[in-house]
């Protein structure tokens, strides 16, 4: 469920104390709040989970091929491969559920910030939009034996003090987790973009540039690690498999997850590019 939701009195008190303003709606998401320095440890844990998912996807096919080669019995190979594939699918679901298992939260959106309500302890924690200059998005598709299991959507809000709020949800083909991350994520991006946009426009109008990680925007084009790319050579500003494509012919690829405020980046780039 998303949108309007009755606000518990405890939430109202925390929101008022945090100066969050008027409530605009609520959504559900899995979350983690990472103190400064904790994000690298969390990334290493996510990398280990990614390796487990990769092994779960590859093991059935490799096992089936080896059995077929060793025994010459295709039926046996297919049967064993299918059994391992089912086990691998179970492992993927376990990893997806574990990432924030006891942290399914209702996220209350306000005019000046948001509040996370911990369903286990019924306690709330308030955050202000102005405290988060950047949000990163990423989406990862999971396949097991060629079958699309689902898509993991993650939005990382990075605070000025190094605090990181990670909100995510696994959009599954079957048995979806109870989150509204597909609706919530763009709202988070919009709130932060609305606050960064005036500063970005002012900097560009003054002849400067605005940085987005390894990339930068200016009136003349996009700055990249490979050099300056004038607007005439930027290309269609499309994305593919989680990467931004820049350039014509054989475009360079840049991970969307590494570009802070990607929605704002696209909005500015498409409005600055007068060659379209």
Question: What structural keywords apply?
Answer:
276 residues; alpha+beta; PH-domain like; 3 domains; 4-stranded antiparallel beta sheet; 5 helices
Based on the structure given, which CATH architecture of the largest domain is correct?
Roll
N to C succession of SSEs: HEHHEEEEEEHEEEEEEEH
CA(first)-CA(last) distance: 40 Å
Largest sheet: 7 strands, antiparallel
**Portion of residues within helices:** 25-40%
What is the spatial order of strands in the main beta sheet?
Answer: 4-3-2-1-7-6-5
Q: Could you say how many structural domains there are in total?
A: 3
Category by helix and strand content = alpha+beta
Average pLDDT score? 83
Q: How many helix segments?
A: 5
Could you name the ranges where pLDDT drops below 50 across 5 or more consecutive residues?
Answer: 96-102
Oligomer: single chain
What's the count of strands? 14
Task: Provide the CATH superfamily of the largest domain.
Answer: Pleckstrin-homology domain (PH domain)/Phosphotyrosine-binding domain (PTB)
Structure description:
The chain has 276 residues and is α+β, with helices and mostly antiparallel strands. It is 38% helix and 32% strand. The protein folds into three domains: 9-37 and 103-190, Roll (PH-domain like), CATH 2.30.29.30; 45-96; 207-272, no CATH class. The chain has helices spanning 9-17, 38-71, 74-98, 181-205, 262-272; strands at residues 23-34, 104-110, 113-118, 123-128, 134-144, 147-158, 164-172, 210-212, 215-218, 221-224, 227-230, 238-240, 243-246, 252-255. The strands form three sheets. It has a seven-stranded antiparallel sheet with strand order 4-3-2-1-7-6-5, with helices on both faces. Strands 8-9-10-11 form a four-stranded antiparallel sheet. α2 (38-71) packs antiparallel against α3 and α4 (181-205) packs across α5. The protein is flat, with a radius of gyration of 22 Å. It starts with 8 loop residues before the first helix and ends with a helix.
């Amino acid at each position: 469920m998303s949108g309007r939701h009755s606000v518990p009195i405890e939430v109202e008190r925390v929101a008022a104390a945090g100066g969050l303003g008027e409530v605009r709606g609520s959504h559900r998401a899995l979350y983690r709040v990472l103190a400064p320095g904790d994000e690298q440890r969390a990334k290493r844990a996510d990398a280990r989970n990614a390796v487990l998912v990769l092994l779960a996807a590859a093991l059935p096919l490799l096992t089936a091929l080896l059995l077929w080669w060793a025994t010459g019995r295709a039926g046996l190979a297919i049967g064993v491969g299918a059994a391992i594939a089912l086990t691998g699918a179970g492992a993927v679901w376990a990893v997806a559920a574990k990432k924030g298992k006891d942290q399914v939260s209702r996220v209350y959106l306000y005019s000046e910030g948001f509040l996370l309500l911990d369903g286990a302890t019924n306690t709330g924690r308030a955050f202000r939009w102005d405290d988060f200059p950047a949000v990163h998005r990423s989406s990862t598709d999971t396949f097991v034996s060629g079958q699309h299991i689902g898509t993991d959507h993650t939005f990382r809000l990075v605070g000025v003090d190094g605090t990181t709020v990670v909100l995510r949800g696994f959009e599954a083909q079957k048995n979806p987790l109870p989150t509204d991350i597909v609706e919530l994520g763009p709202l988070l991006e919009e709130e932060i973009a609305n606050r960064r946009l005036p500063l970005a426009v002012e900097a560009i109008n003054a002849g400067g540039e605005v940085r987005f990680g390894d990339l930068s925007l200016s009136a003349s084009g996009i700055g990249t690690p490979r050099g300056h790319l004038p607007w005439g050579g930027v290309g269609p500003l499309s994305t593919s498999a989680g990467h931004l494509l820049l350039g014509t012919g054989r475009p360079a690829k840049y991970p969307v997850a590494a570009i802070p405020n990607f929605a704002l980046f696209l909005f500015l780039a498409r409005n600055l590019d007068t060659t379209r």
